[in-house]
TrEMBL record:
A Gene Ontology cellular-component term: efflux pump complex
Compartments in which it is found: Cell outer membrane
An annotated Gene Ontology molecular function: efflux transmembrane transporter activity
InterPro entries: TolC-like (IPR051906)
Keyword list, A-Z: Cell outer membrane, Membrane, Transmembrane, Transmembrane beta strand
Name of the molecule in the record: TolC family protein
Organism per entry: Mucilaginibacter robiniae
Family annotation (SUPFAM superfamilies): Outer membrane efflux proteins (OEP) (SSF56954)
Length: 403
């Protein structure tokens, strides 16, 4: 849904369409240029000043009405491969826009995953807190019975009630987190703000396929968006250098002209009649001044190629660093999930023991409340670790260019 409805993606797709049209426009330059033109005019008599401009002239009668209509054509045969280079440049620009569009789409997908997983985490937190409140209320009922029997102090009841009150406030905060996350995700995927999204899938971090770092590194150059962009930017600078070099090259083209005109004053003697004339030929030119006018432009373009090559190498280094970081963080997140599962098991057993000892009057209410907090917190930590691991997996795929 993010791919289809996200406005940022839509803009990027339109930019790709623009470049595709630019390629077609560049190819159209191979077609002949055809121009039609015409003119109509009225001319005065032709005064001839035989005795100087300050004396009366002799009025020489001419044909006053004049008109002409014609067609001109030019077909480029060779211009230093400028047309081919322009098409190649537009193709590289198209590749750049496609890669940028793919990179933007991947970023949007990663953001959608982050919003979705955050919403999923809030729903799980909500269910954990609701269950905890239910358990605390049952436990509170037992504490009230113990108080009536005089087995405990009233402070135990107050502390237990305070604990339930805090949990209700936490539940309200989580419910607001759900509403906020729901709206953020709806906006991202182009849906109405109030549409309710309830994530139904489970967090299954055990299904992730973790390859070796070397395997990921082998995929990096071919798929990583930044590396591909840097490579195409280098190619673009090389094409532009060739284009500047072609400024000093032979240009060959065919031209033609056909026209109807009145009166005939092309050849003497002139005729007050309509005439037609067609010409065709080959035009060859060579810009001699290009040898000295093009020198510095060529050097600037050559420096640009060198700069892009260094930038591409720097991008490769940064992408490798990002891959290494994402890879290690992903492995770290999986370890945290395993540790969190062990902590949940230990906290569950600890809570069971403390709860039994408290109601057997062998431990304090503070021990019971601490054990309950630890159990709830370890469950939160487990959910947070699983969400972080799944999001880190998507982050790794984004660095690789596979998201």
């Amino acid at each position: 849904m993010a791919d289809r409805y996200n406005k940022t993606n839509q803009v990027k797709k339109l930019q790709v369409d623009q470049v595709k049209e630019s390629i077609l426009d560049s190819k159209a330059e191979r077609l002949p240029e055809i121009t039609t033109s015409g003119n109509f005019e009225e001319a005065s008599n032709l005064p001839i000043y035989n005795n100087g401009i300050f004396n009366s002239p002799i009025q020489h009668a001419i044909v006053h009405t004049r008109y002409k209509i014609g067609v001109d054509g030019y077909l480029n045969i060779y211009n230093g491969s400028k047309t081919n280079l322009k098409i190649a440049e537009q193709n590289v620009l198209k590749d750049l826009e496609i890669i940028r569009q793919q990179s933007t789409a991947a970023d949007v997908r990663l953001l959608a995953a982050a919003y979705y997983l955050d919403l999923k985490k809030s729903y799980i937190f909500k269910s954990l807190v609701i269950k905890n409140i239910e358990d605390q209320e049952k436990q509170l009922a037992k504490i009230k019975v113990f108080l009536q029997q005089g087995a405990i102090l009233k402070s135990d009841l107050l502390r237990a009630e305070l604990k339930v009150s805090h949990q209700r406030v936490s539940l309200l905060q989580i419910e607001n987190d759900i509403l906020i996350g729901n709206q953020k995700l709806n906006i991202l995927i182009g849906q109405p703000d109030n549409q309710v999204i309830i994530p139904v899938d489970d967090l299954q971090t055990g299904k992730f396929d973790l390859k070796s770092y070397d395997e990921y590194l082998a995929l990096l150059t071919a798929h990583a968006y930044d590396a591909r962009l840097a490579s195409r930017e280098t190619s673009l600078s090389e094409i532009r250098l060739k284009n500047i070099k072609s400024n000093v090259s032979l240009k060959v083209g065919l031209y033609s002209n056909f026209q109807y005109a009145y009166p005939e004053n092309f050849l003497y003697p002139y005729y007050a009649s309509i005439y037609s004339l067609g010409v065709a030929g080959v035009r060859v030119s060579f810009p001699i001044s290009g040898f000295y006018l093009n020198t510095h432009k060529q050097k600037v373009a050559a420096i640009e190629v060198q700069k892009q090559q260094i930038i591409a190498s720097d991008v490769q280094d940064k992408v490798r660093q990002r891959l290494n970081e994402a890879y290690l963080r992903f492995k770290e997140s999986l370890t945290k999930v395993d540790v969190a599962k062990v902590n949940v098991a230990q906290a569950t057993e600890n809570y069971r023991i403390v709860r039994n000892t408290y109601f057997n009057q062998a431990s304090l209410i503070t021990d019971l409340l601490d054990a309950d907090v630890q159990l709830l917190q370890t469950n939160f930590d487990l959910v947070g670790a699983e969400v972080a691991a799944q999001l880190q997996y998507y982050q790794l795929q984004n660095v690789l260019g596979n998201l």
